[in-house]
Design goal:
alpha+beta; 390 residues
């Protein structure tokens, strides 16, 4: 087993690390103050291909493996989270349904636009009464000749106000539960689709989350993704990619926090010694470094299994990576803030911003509680398989 990254991924890592430090991080404070990502930064993200890291080259993406994509996301996470919401989300839940399940003419229409960043995508699954229990969505779809007609309301949809295309999930038969759900590609200009209330979140300035309203929204039959009744499985396939990327995101954000902590305790003095020379501080740093290292290994394994494993292994590894990363980064954010004391809690430094930004990872794309369910089910299956009579 080789734990060394391949040479080409080390080059990619170094290149994106330099890019984030020189072209993205200088905008962090301004984005937090204004809620706007500068056009120059968006252009830089497009130039680096960060809207399509894992998208095949034939559609204008970088064609990276999932491991390569996670390496890129890990570095991107060291800058303001708006950059990841705008570009990184295009790579997984924004585009994967179109990449894997769209009819060729629909895929060819949208995927190059998404990979280039000329169009931003949104994933319209969550509803006011259907969050973790996605099979209970109430948005309806009905066939009408060569079209489907969609009616309903989605909420907390990332990038909705700036999206050019949506993956929308609706039920053809509420009594069928998950088996009644279908997925559709919906152009943002389609009559009947509108953006409702923009929801102000605790963090994530520079990206927006909003309601999406569908009122007699007519979608061509060719825009159906996969087959009727496959929508729930399509959503879960997209979320596998999203959760794998979020695991890497948490590693990157935690790396940045640990770097801040190491610098601080190496410079700050208390009671006649540098903070790093106090055993209590040493142990906190050790705990942070150990947790980060473990989460990175889990994240890289999840990426590898996404590239090589079967569907069950991919899903379980993605859940484990997101759960491990989300819990880890919140502990490291809280410890880092504590080490900095009052100045860490102030807005003079980025510590409190990252603390707020990373809290939501325990909620979005499957809560930590749902991730535990997925992990436990996989553990039971493994146990039963190992102990089955031969």
């Amino acid at each position: 087993m080789d734990f060394q990254l391949p040479d080409q991924l080390q080059v990619l890592q170094s290149r994106i690390r330099d890019f984030v430090r020189t072209e993205l991080q200088p905008h962090d404070a301004a984005i937090e103050a204004t809620g706007r990502v500068p056009d120059s930064a968006m252009a830089a993200l497009r130039r680096m291909g960060l809207f399509g890291t894992n998208t095949p080259r034939e559609f204008g993406g970088l064609g990276l493996s999932m491991l390569g994509s996670c390496i890129a996301i890990e570095e991107l996470a060291k800058a303001h989270t708006a950059f990841y919401y705008l570009s990184g989300v295009n790579v997984h839940i924004g585009s994967k349904a179109i990449e894997f399940f769209a009819r060729p003419q629909v895929r060819d229409r949208w995927l190059p636009e998404l990979a280039s960043g000329r169009v931003i995508a949104a994933f319209a699954l969550t509803e006011p009464n259907a969050g973790s229990d996605a099979a209970r969505i109430e948005t309806r779809a009905r066939r009408d000749g060569d079209h489907y007609v969609l009616d309903g309301c989605k909420t907390y949809i990332t990038n909705a106000p700036v999206a050019g295309v949506f993956t929308v999930f609706a039920t053809l038969d509420p009594s069928a539960g998950a088996k009644g759900i279908a997925a559709f590609v919906v152009d943002a200009k389609t009559p009947g689709l509108s953006i409702g209330r923009v929801v102000e979140m605790a963090a994530g300035r520079g990206s927006e989350h909003a309601e999406v309203k569908l009122e007699h929204c007519r979608v061509p039959r060719d825009n159906l993704l996969g087959q009727e009744g496959e929508g729930f499985a399509i959503a879960m396939r997209c979320l596998d990619a999203g959760r794998t990327h979020w695991g890497a995101y948490c590693v990157g954000a935690a790396s940045q926090l640990l770097a801040y902590a190491l610098d601080h305790v190496s410079q700050r003095e208390a009671f006649g010694r540098k903070l790093r020379d106090h055993q209590g501080i040493e142990w906190q740093i050790a705990d942070m470094a150990a947790a980060l290292h473990a989460a990175r290994l889990v994240a890289y394994e999840a990426a590898w299994r996404y590239d090589h494993g079967d569907a069950a292994a991919r899903t379980a590894a993605a859940a484990l990576s997101k759960y491990t990363g989300a819990e880890m980064v919140q502990r490291i954010a809280d410890t880092t803030l504590q080490l900095f004391g009052g100045v860490g809690y102030s807005r003079d430094l980025p510590i409190e911003r990252i603390w707020r930004e990373t809290r939501v990872v325990r909620i979005l794309d499957g809560t930590s509680e749902i991730m535990r369910q997925v992990i436990a089910r996989h553990a039971f299956r493994d146990h039963e398989r190992r102990n089955a009579p031969t």
